[in-house]
Amino acid sequence: MKADKQALAEEGPQGMLGKALDGIERVGNKLPDPAMLFLILMFAVWGLSALLSGVSFDAIDPRTDSPIVVNNLLSAEALTHFLTSMVTTFTAFAPLGVVLVAMLGVGVAEHSGFINTALKQMLKVTPAKLLTPAVVLVGIISHTATDAGYVVVIPLAGVIFFTVGRHPLAGIAAAFAGVSGGFCANFIPSGIDPLLQSFTQSAAQIVDPSISVNPLNNWFFAASSCIPITLLIWWLTDKVLEPRLNRTHKVNRDEVDLPAMDEVTPTEMKAFRSASLVMLIAIVGFFSLTFPESSTLRDSNGSLTSFSAPLMQSIVPLIFIFFMLPGLVYGYITGSFKNSSDVVQAMSKSMSGMSHYIVMAFFCAQFVAAFSASNLGALIAVEGASGLKALNLPAEVTVIGMIILVGFVNLFVGSSSAKWALIGPVLVPMLMQLNISPDLSQAAYRVGDSSSNIITPLMPYFPLVVVYCQRYVKNIGIGTLISMMLPFSLALMAIWSAWLLLYWSIGLPLGLGSSYSYGL
């Protein structure tokens, strides 16, 4: 009888979910290496662009107010451009520079021992039961510093979990879900707010030229969303993912090049305090330069948080500096750095771990450029939005449909601003006709835009997360990461959508100067 009950329990939702995820992992891992996958997809885009280049589409590109035309990438002119721009396409690939520059500074801090000591000190004050939500919250807040979460928070989460004896891939997944799955949630306003607002306002002015949208029109909703998102990711990590990882993906601890979690020596504590003080002085000194209204770190409008502000454009160099300085101080006090050659060696070690990512980034850059040049992404986005409009569903159902549509389009068009520029001019005016405000439309967009980030290999940082996982389990592939993140993605879309509907039904303010309805 007990055996039968156990068998039934294993065949329950948890067991069925595990089997489904195992199947996804097996199928996904049979895909080629990510580098080759991007190459194959690029060839597929070339072929599809050639087939569709002669087809006339009624879909109007809102960026040009003209019908969308699929460009033939197999034409002689396009192939010539591909060859002549291949190098610059790779070197101009934004995630590549972000990752490599940041990792140079992080490498110095890591190999000096500074990060290890910092983690030990942090773990002393963080209760073991709250480790997962702490990682998730840090990941969500990291959006304030643009892409810092991908190059700092996610790998460090793996180190933290590994150090305390938990599965490191669970830490990486929790951080990835917070950084990328919770991308549009944050307690702190960031550059994404005015960026989305600018597209929302221009789309709304198609119907009402006098309308004005506040840049922080979704701030309250985005801040409140941190609560359900954190709780959800916490539960999924501890109760669903980590138990499965412990059964299916054993960590070869002997091959993981990480220091043991031993006690901090007096010398290390002295070095840590000195290094932390230097880091604090550098941060305070730098940000004191931002206070004057005439600061060169502000944009032309005096803002510090817009994407055009020099401060926001300096985030990655600042990561490099603010990790490099304490790493140097710590290393020279403890003796882990005896001369400049040791510092360069630390940087070299951090770069050696990025070799696979650099190869993947090359092919990813070529694919992204081809997909953009073909206009296939624009066609998918606009046709999808037009299809949703044609269904003429009730307001609440339309909002949920919009979230699902955005989540689907996000699998192909990763850029948040590019998607909104494409589908916003269709969806915002359409929903205004249903008495739904641009503020609510933008909030729904944020939910859909975030939820599927963590399951698409076409997201530029996805291959980097695969590399982080391979540090602990060598046979990790695309399928493994997708199977790890799929429950987070589906749950985020469902729970976050429900949170928006609840927020709407109660009538809580979405943000500053926001509303739910638009009076025609």
Structure description:
There is one protein chain. The chain has 520 residues and is mainly α. The chain is built from 22 helices and 2 strands. The chain has helices at 2-10, 13-29, 34-52, 76-91, 94-112, 114-125, 131-141, 148-163, 168-181, 192-204, 219-248, 266-288, 310-313, 315-334, 340-352, 355-374, 376-391, 395-409, 416-433, 438-451, 462-470, 478-506; strands at residues 60-61, 66-67. Strands 1-2 form a two-stranded antiparallel sheet. A hairpin with a 4-residue loop joins strand 1 (60-61) and strand 2 (66-67). Helix 18 packs across helix 20 (438-451) and helix 20 (438-451) packs antiparallel against helix 22. The protein starts with a helix and ends in a 14-residue tail after the last helix. The model is unreliable at 1-13 (pLDDT under 50).
Annotation keywords:
disordered N terminus, two-stranded antiparallel ribbon, 520 residues, 1% strand, 69% helix, mainly alpha, 22 helices
Layout of helices and strands, plus pairs?
Blueprint: H1 2-10, H2 13-29, H3 34-52, E1 60-61, E2 66-67, H4 76-91, H5 94-112, H6 114-125, H7 131-141, H8 148-163, H9 168-181, H10 192-204, H11 219-248, H12 266-288, H13 310-313, H14 315-334, H15 340-352, H16 355-374, H17 376-391, H18 395-409, H19 416-433, H20 438-451, H21 462-470, H22 478-506
Antiparallel strand pairs: 1-2
Helix pairs in contact: 2-22, 3-16, 4-16, 5-8, 5-14, 5-15, 7-8, 7-9, 7-11, 8-9, 8-21, 9-11, 10-19, 10-20, 11-22, 12-14, 17-18, 17-19, 18-20, 19-20, 20-22
